[in-house]
Amino acid sequence: MSKKLILGLPSKGRLKEQCEGWLLKQGLKLRQLGGDRGYSAHLDGEPNIDVRLMSSSEISRALLAGEIHAGITGEDLVREQSGKADELIDFAVKLGFGNADVVVAVPDGWIDVTNMADLAEVATDVRKSSGQRMRIATKFTRLTSDFFNKCGVADYRIVYSGGATEGAPANGIAEAIVDITTSGSTLVANNLKIIDDGLILASQANLMAAKSAKWNKPLEAEFAKFVRNL
Amino acid sequence: MTISIRQEIKKVLAPSGGEWVDLPSLLPASTVIELAGEALRSRLYFATSPDGEELCLRADLTIPAALKYIESADIDNMSATYLCEGKVYRASPNGEHRHPEFTQIGIERFGTQDEIQTDVEVFLSAITACKIGEIQDFAFEFSDGGLIDTILDGAFIYPPWKEYLKSSSKSPNSLKRALKIACLKDKQEPTALETSLLGQDDEAASNTIEEVIELAKLRTGLARGPYEIAQRLKSRAERALAKPLKTEIKSAIEEILAIEASPKKAIKEIVKIAKNLGVDLSNWSKTWEKRLAEIAKKVPEIEDNSRFVASKNGRFEYYSGFAFDIFAKKDTELPLATGGRYDGLIAALTNGGRNAQAMGVVIRPERLGG
Q1: Backbone phi and psi for residue B64, each to the nearest 5 degrees, phi listed first
Q2: Per-residue DSSP letter, A88
Q3: Do B167 and A128 touch (CB under 8 A)?
Q4: What pLDDT does residue B96 have?
């Protein structure tokens, strides 16, 4: 068992910068070993914390698997990767950055669609007229499936889209999408509108603890101290 | 023990004719989900082919058997009987902890001519197979995947509501929600645009919507355009202006959905309620009575140990008629065998390109005491 608290932090991009800035505000300087491209680091003044720099989705996966004790990543990634997120993860601190909404969006020319009940009817119409279910392009298959089920949308199927999802309706790949947005401007630029009650998750970066990681009293105390000092 | 039970089941099923077939374990995920719906996704196990196609492990034997039939049958409704055995893979629903892979042994009959005879033969094969194990006392549940559609088709219901209710006919919970909405007295008034569309033919209505969209500098995407939007706005306006669905109709349909009684009693009750809706179900009831009488010749206890429900939540949508579950009398939660008629499955898999009557059953050998 590791004697140090293993903390996963984002290794690149905007989330890494925001994370570093936030740590600095807490009086914690992140020192990357091996320069900007190194993947191990430590926090000045925190010798009992072993920092691992990882991609955001890898942090999420490692937290769910209990391979690291704690980490900072987006709530959307964790909830998408597991249906048992609340059982496996302690969402300890909401950090106020990395805000991103997972939303349902449809072409803005669909003037007959404003809410999920409309979308449910449209899905049924599409299936009746084409013999095929309405297609939703997304990489958030679990979140979409759970949300659509809750909203009573049945006649749809998911088309996996790993990128450029906003282009799917214009390209004929899907009728509508579920995607992440911060300001909504990319959706607007692609002639898409967010459905009124189509907010699936208002996500932000969280400091999370893995409930299934190997914990002992000193590690629990270390994490409690880390949270307390924030 | 389990192996000998499986062999015995296979012996029982084989005399009904047919060929033992190997069915693929990996299926195109899009085919399975298109058919069963996204609600099944969380219970499927996925894989990716080397060329990137998303695949899933089969969650039942019926879909791969139907795909095999489509490949091999040269003409519509060609007769074929498949006997099949194999593992299927399905995660438990949330909160349950059942083993995700289990064996099914089944018969799938396609292109059958005599509907009642086939239904009875398949059911009797299933009950004979179930008797192979330690369990000898059984309970039966019957339902009819086509009944609600038959009632909605025949009932005197104003067209906007008929179409609206039919779109929810396969799920009792959805149908109850739709009935509630249809009976609402305070409906949102149609917009001026919607009202104007009501006076226009389809082409003119489509042109109007196209113009509105262009003026507002909006886009519709490739898959659904002005025509479809106009059609929906028109039907929404028709529903908004239509009188609410009579509460008696709502109550009658809800009453039918709530029926859970011995088959004779349930069928009699359903016929009576349907008559009040203007639907003559005498042929439907005669078919069921004949079916049950044929079954009773071999299984005399059938009426006393059976219940009939009009429609079931959670059943695959492709069941289109006679459907049944066989349980151990002391455990009516987990069926030993599940079967039914799915005449629309071949058409659904081929987008209407092919047709065949179909009826099948699968048996769960490990639940038979093995």
Answers
A1: -65, -35
A2: H
A3: yes
A4: 76
Compute φ and ψ for A40, nearest 5 degrees: -120, 155
Select from A112, A124, A191 the Cβ nearest to the Cβ of B167. A124
pLDDT 10s per residue in chain A (230 long)? Answer: 678 999 999 998 999 999 999 999 988 899 887 766 667 788 988 899 999 999 999 999 999 999 999 999 999 999 999 989 999 999 999 999 999 999 999 999 999 999 999 999 999 999 988 889 999 999 999 999 999 999 989 899 999 998 899 999 999 999 999 999 998 999 999 999 999 999 999 999 999 999 999 999 999 999 998 888 77
Q: Which tokens sit at B96?
A: 């349950």
> CA of B317 to nearest chain A CA: how many angstroms apart?
11
Which residues, numbered 272 to 331 in chain B, qualify as contacts with chain A under a Cβ-Cβ cut-off of 8 Å? none
B236 and A152 in contact by Cβ < 8 A?
no
Q: Among A192, A191, A104, which residue's Cα sits nearest to residue A153?
A: A104
Kindly state whether B224 is in contact with chain A, defined as any CB-CB distance less than 8 angstroms. Answer: yes
Residue B2, pLDDT > 70, answer no
The answer to whether the beta carbons of residues B90 and B100 sit under 8 Å apart is yes
Q: If residue B129 lies in a helix (H) or strand (E), which one and from where to where?
A: helix B115-130
Interface test with B, best of A80, A112, A129 (most B CBs within 10 A): A112
**What region, left, alpha or beta, does residue B140 occupy, with left being phi > 0 and alpha being psi -120 to 50 degrees?**
beta
How far does the CA of residue A159 sit from the closest CA of chain B (Å)?
8
The residues in A 102-121 lying below 8 A from B, measured between CB atoms, are 106-112, 121
Nearest chain B residue to A122 by CA: give it.
Answer: B232
Nearest to A92 by CA among A211, A229, A227, A230: A227
Tell me if residue A74 falls in helix, strand or coil.
Answer: strand
Q: Which chain A residues are closer than 8 Å to B33 by Cβ?
A: 133, 157-158
Closest listed residue to residue B76, CA positions, set B360, B354, B341, B359:
B354
Token code pair at residue B103? 């064996």
Note whether B220 contacts A109, CB cutoff 8 Å: yes
Through-space distance between the first and last CA atoms of chain A, rounded to whole angstroms:
26
Question: pTM of this prediction?
Answer: 0.86
Sign of the dihedral through C-alpha B263, B267, B269, B273? positive
Q: pLDDT band for position B314 (50/70/90)?
A: low
What is the nearest CA distance from A126 to chain B, expressed in angstroms?
Answer: 8
| CA-CA-CA-CA dihedral for B67, B72, B76, B82, to nearest 10 | -70
